[in-house]
Amino acid sequence: MSSTADRLIETLRAEIAALGQQGGVVTPSVYDTAQVLRFAPPPNPQPAIDWLMAQQHADGGWGPEVMPLARHVPTLASVLALLVSSDAPGSHDAATRGLDFLRRTAELWSFEQSLPDDIPVAVELVLPRLLEDAAALGLDLPQQPFRLLRTLGERRRGLIARMKIRAGTTPVHGWEAWGSQADPAVIDATQGVGNSPAATALWLNRRRAATPDAQELRGVEEFLAGASAATRTGIPGVVPTVWPIPTFERPWGLLALLSSGLLSHPALQDVIRPQLEALHRALKPEGLGMSDNFDVDGDTTTTTVALLANAGHPVEGRVLERYQREGLFITYSHEMQPSLTTTAHGVLALAMLGQDATQPLRFLLEKRGHNGVWVGDKWHCSWLYATSQVMGALAQAGAAAELRASAEAMIALQREDGGWGVGTASSASETAFAVHAMYGLRSAPGACGAAVRRALRKAAAWLTTWDAAPHAAETLWIGKELYGPVRVDRVFVLTARLALELDRDLLSR
Length: 509
Hints:
Layout: H1 3-18, H2 30-39, H3 46-54, H4 72-84, H5 91-105, H6 123-136, H7 147-161, H8 170-173, H9 175-178, H10 197-210, H11 217-229, H12 246-259, H13 269-282, H14 298-310, E1 324-325, E2 328-329, H15 340-353, H16 358-366, H17 383-396, H18 403-412, H19 428-438, H20 446-467, E3 477-478, E4 482-483, H21 486-502, H22 504-507
Antiparallel strand pairs: 1-2, 3-4
Helix pairs in contact: 1-13, 1-21, 2-4, 2-10, 4-5, 4-6, 6-7, 10-11, 12-13, 12-14, 12-21, 14-15, 15-16, 15-17, 17-19, 18-20, 19-20, 19-21, 20-21
């Protein structure tokens, strides 16, 4: 074994052992930080304000340019936060440029018939609420482009109004967009609201105003401090868009090991076993969610079931029935857009259990694009993630014959530098997803196997170069804005690199 492989194994061991610790590590969020500055700022807000203004792009907007529809929420929230902080140097000019961006780009929401599936989480609630707040301040912004979004939001509000609201349920994650009175019933055991710093900040604001001496205020403040620590920025008030996520980190980290063929690697077993055992203990008869205090969901549940079944842990397959709907798998009850990758993980789980996956498999094949890859997932903005998860499911479900055309499409879309990415440059996590998608075909006979090996060699060289250079965490997962679960992405990259390093002799053929 090479010294590079030894080093990668040691680094990967540390990352696997850390999965789920301290609630997870998540990239900082512009939207949620802006909401904290509006409603529950730290004693000295200036460092957070400076951070917020530093995230503004040259075009006046905030948020990654790779997903235009995910930019309006962080931009409008930032404008409102900076107007509240109008005495901060440069804040008025930044807010003015943000408003110009919103006016220029509002037409992106002018869909005629229906909204796409891959819109940001709760945007139908959050963006209309922000527009209402802007109107209350006398800000002149276009309204007509958001007609369909408002209609969807009204439907969602109607559903929420008929529900018995409990802590840790999906509507509470967007409480800041529809809540009014700070009911203690929405506070969960973490002392936060719906795993959402934005919702928690508004709840704290409302509760302080109504009951300044309420006992629970200190715990809620500590939740926001913990969320801020999860960003690793060291700036009070800078928070992620979702936290805590311990039982999201664990299965996705282990999934990266599974799809790269490393889940059974002997040098990793002593750190993998405790994580599998933790998932086995956490899995309830109704499923598993991103944390012990948040609602169960089909994506986390199916992924966990697949991993446990693969590892030989006893698991009850009936838990999957809760999430099956008309030939596909849902993530949450009452959702209005289907998820491609949740269905892929459902197929993976069924295949691992030896159960029939014909219907959801047919759905996946029907959703393949004319160019051979899968696009439009609701949880990740990159087609590389969607394609890697579907290809992994197809391989496990006995549909390996369908993989070659997609592998050829991925190879055709590889950049000259050896990486892949949906933005203007290759990204590490997306390159890793491509490696995971094609890794199983490296020994395929004939031209396909040779082409895959060439592509993987180029990817290995790019990942080595990337590892030697400074780089920022990537934000490609879809929440209220785009974000990055840092440990998950890092494990995908490390497993891709290690698998390629261990197979260096094969890839050189």
